[in-house]
Amino acid sequence: MGDEYGRVTAVRNASQDPELDQQQANGRCLSLGINGQLRCAERARLMEAALAYMSDGVYILDENLKFSLCNDRYKELLRMPAGLVAVGCPVEPVVRYLVRRGDYGKVDTENFVRHRMQAYQDRVAFCLEIRTPEGRYIDFRQNPIHGGGLVVTCRDVTDRRSAEVAMRAAHQKMVEGLTYAQMIQNNVLPKRGQLSARIPDHFVLWQPCDVVSGDFFFFHDEGRQFLLGLADCTGHGVPGGFMTMTAHVVLSQLVSEVGPEDPASLLMIANRLLRAQLHQGMEGKSGVDNGLDLGLIYCDVKERKLIYSGARIGLVHAGRHGTVELRGQRQSLGYRRSDLSATFTNHEIEAAPGDAFYLTSDGLLDQVGGSAGMPFGRRRLLDFVDWGRGRPMAEQAKALEHQLGIWQGDYPQRDDITVIGFRLDRE
Fold first, then answer.
1. Which of 106, 212, 259, 386 has the most beta carbons within 10 angstroms of its beta carbon?
2. Which helix (H) or strand (E) element contains residue 323?
3. pLDDT exceeds 80 at position 336
4. Residue 229 has what DSSP assignment?
């Protein structure tokens, strides 16, 4: 019993010895420190290994703007001389070297170095791109580190820049081509002065979906008589523009040879000519199916007589007895599916004073808008025509353009839009 008591007392006394407690605490701290150093060394080894395999150059600056870490890729990208970049070396000589080498272009060396070092000291995040003397583009990204210091990454973006330059050049060439195509198309369309001389009270709302339109309007003047037409070709933009050129040539030649007096016959012959011109139905000749819708009006101004015929493009007539829509026949021109034996009907109209007439492509009718994203539709067009009774065509054009803009809102334009309105009366 006495021996056991002595052992317990010895243990108690030992645990109360301050020197022994301090020694044990120091031992624990040393053990923790060694373990911490080992873990830090392991993390540093892993970080260096990761940086060595990175395709980007990376370096870290401490709070004194000295290199605390840098991978070999950074030195390779910037073609750094040996010894200039190393752990513990300041970054300022590197900046000065790059400036003098010409990587930053023609700049005042001291001025640029001062501003660059200030950006380091301010620890601001920013991007910078330089062009090396070899013509390579290097993109730098600088970000501050929590607790002090900076991490900077750099990447060779020469291939990306070359692709961007090529894309800009291609885009510029495309824009120039479209602008030239637009000029050609505008030269083919009837001049506004030509229309105004024969039809003083008229408007043409022509809004291509792209630079070049797949719609075109046609005018053939024979003094007392004229032929007015509106065509809506396949597609829009450049493909539609090419179709308008082909269709305009065919129609112009046809009117010159046959005359303008019989719109129905013109549509029938145009259907056959376009099928032949576009090689539709001939194996191996065409991989696409092209054609157009067309509405034609022959007018004898002195007799106040109109003859209308349409292939899917109708005529709206606002007369004394109300508004009437003459629908075009459900037959397009020039497509593979177009019936070569199809015939068209002429509609003769006696134009009373004040009567108004309208042709429109389906771009207006199909344009979505409003709160529900619904098409503009035929009903809104007819309501607009009723509103326009007695109003000058110039006023109607502004009102229709405004109404269409309000209706369309933020919805994109879906197709080329063309509307023609006219009266035979003098203003």
1. 212
2. strand 322-326
3. yes
4. E
Burial of 350 (0-12, 13-18, 19+ CB in 10 A): exposed
| pTM of the predicted model over 0.85 | no
Question: Is residue 12's pLDDT more than 50?
Answer: no
Partnered with residue 308 across adjacent β-strands are: 297, 347
Show the beta-strand stretches assigned E in 249-376: 292-300, 305-311, 315-319, 322-326, 347-350, 356-360, 368-369, 374-375
Residue 145 CA to residue 127 CA, distance in Å, equals: 16
> For residue 164, what are the contacts with CB-CB under 8 A and spacing of at least 6?
none
Q: State pLDDT tens for residues 120-166.
A: 999 888 888 888 888 899 999 999 988 788 999 999 999 999 999 89
Whether 208 and 174 have beta carbons less than 8 Å apart is answered as no
Rounded Cα gap, residues 154 and 78, in angstroms: 9
In 118-169, beta strands by DSSP E = 126-131, 137-144, 150-156
Q: How far is CA 47 from CA 18, 43, 61, 78, 83, in A?
A: 42, 6, 15, 22, 22
